[in-house]
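Pasting two entries for a bug report.
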Amino acid sequence: MTRNIGIKVSEPGSEIDETDKKNPFNGTLSVRGKLFQGKVIKAKAKDTVVLEKESPMYYSKFKRYARGKNSIHAHVPSNIQVKEGDVVVAAECRPLSKSVAFVVVEVKK
């Protein structure tokens, strides 16, 4: 049985690993703070993906918007399957390692 994480997202896959503590649905990891949608650009590391988040940047000198991109590392729980090119929703959590402070909570189509 999955627990309510406080965010309206679809239920993850049926494969449940009870030993995964870094899972917001089955483990003890709580989510808080920012929620964003990004595209997976790298999925080579174990249980970690690199997401690319696009956001508009305004240049007041030129009175125009430009595209800005950020690369963010996120943890992938054991019951979510992610591959390169997927669009995912990530939520902020406590720091899981030096560069990982987000967790993937949903895979969009």
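Entry 2 (this is the one that rendered wrong in the viewer):
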Amino acid sequence: MQITVKMFATLMEYLPEGAVKNTIQVQVEDRTTPYQVIDQYRVPRSEVHLVLVNGVYVDEKSRDLPMKPNDTLAIWPPVAGG
């Protein structure tokens, strides 16, 4: 299935070649989870703070739930500063 992956701030370095700005469309296996995508791109889970699927927040317990075709996965690191 095809999904869109967006990574922001310091996580953009983990995007593969071909990413435009901070976004890439990728093919993944059916029922792929957000954590599987995060692991596939070798993003340390400790650097993942905010995860959204189609603009909806996904808490840590739900990041093992499967996504659907054409979903958009957006990932942010923790925010530093005050």
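Dev reply: Rendering is fixed now. As a check, the viewer should reflect this: The beta strands are 2-7, 23-27, 50-53, 56-57, 72-76.
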